[in-house]
Amino acid sequence: MKIKSGDTVIVISGKDIGKKGKVLTVLPKKNRVIVEGVNMLTKHQKSTGPMQEGGIINQEGPLDVSNVMYYCDRDKKGVRIGYKFLENGKKVRVCKECGEELD
């Protein structure tokens, strides 16, 4: 999976198409990501004690990783990600449009 936690991504399909956000969590076994402010779900939570209040809570739901693209600040659009090896043997992610190193 080429998307990592902390990356800025743009949604390319679904009900939130065109929205940008920061990746909060990556779920590689399920091939999903949770993006800040995207795919908001309504959860009804029961109070579990005297200090915990119940009510309706809005939270982000997981998106399939194929529905998001990395957002490149230099190109101002969603781009594909590739890999490149440096001279010291380190493997880094690069933007396929402008060639900028992401890591």
Automatic annotation (TrEMBL):
Pfam families given in the database record: KOW (PF00467), ribosomal_L24 (PF17136)
Record carries keyword Iron-sulfur: no
Entry-linked InterPro entries: KOW (IPR005824), Rib_uL2_dom2 (IPR014722), Ribosomal_uL24 (IPR003256), Ribosomal_uL24_C (IPR057264), Ribosomal_uL24_KOW (IPR041988), Translation_prot_SH3-like_sf (IPR008991)
GO CC list: ribonucleoprotein complex; ribosome
SMART domains for this protein: KOW
Molecular function (Gene Ontology), one example: structural constituent of ribosome
Cell cycle keyword on record: no
Keywords: Ribonucleoprotein, Ribosomal protein, RNA-binding, rRNA-binding
KOW domain mapped to chain residues: 2-29
One biological process term in Gene Ontology: translation
Family (UniProt): Belongs to the universal ribosomal protein uL24 family.
HAMAP family for this protein: Ribosomal_uL24_B
NCBIfam families, A to Z: rplX_bact
Subunit description: Part of the 50S ribosomal subunit.
Protein function: One of the proteins that surrounds the polypeptide exit tunnel on the outside of the subunit.
Name the UniProt record assigns to this protein: Large ribosomal subunit protein uL24
Organism: Anaerosalibacter massiliensis
